[in-house]
Automatic annotation (TrEMBL):
InterPro entries, per database record: Thioredoxin, Thioredoxin-like_sf, Thioredoxin_CS, Thioredoxin_domain
Protein name according to UniProt: Thioredoxin
Disulphide connectivity of cysteines: 23-26
Classification lineage: Bacteria, Pseudomonadati, Bacteroidota, Chitinophagia, Chitinophagales
Recorded coiled-coil stretches: none
Organism annotation: Flavipsychrobacter stenotrophus
Cellular component, GO annotation: cytosol
């Protein structure tokens, strides 16, 4: 499996969902992320990171609440937001970074 750094250094936008298994809103994000991935296909990568299993990574990106969504491209943070984000809004944000 590729390292996190390898994945986020992609020239495609990478949507990272920092989540926790015990988090209610995180469970609401799962079908939204699937919907976005289904609609956008290979234009984007979607990665789910369990903050309880990856505490160092969560700390590295200062994730304080879950879900926190971060869009990376070429290893740089292009957008981030905590809380549930609707599929249409996510698609719009990701489309801005597809080139």
């Amino acid at each position: 499996m590729d390292s996190f750094e390898t994945v986020i250094n992609s020239d495609k936008p990478v949507l990272v969902d920092f989540f926790a298994t015990w988090c209610g809103p995180c469970k609401m994000m799962a079908p939204i992320l699937k919907d976005v991935k289904d609609k956008m296909g290979d234009d984007v990568k979607v990665l789910k990171i369990d903050v309880d299993k990856n505490q160092r990574l969560a700390a590295q990106f200062n994730v304080q609440g879950v879900p926190t969504l971060i869009v990376f491209k070429h290893g740089q943070v292009k957008w981030r937001q905590s809380g549930v984000v609707q599929a249409k809004q996510l698609q719009q944000i990701l489309k801005e970074h597809v080139a």
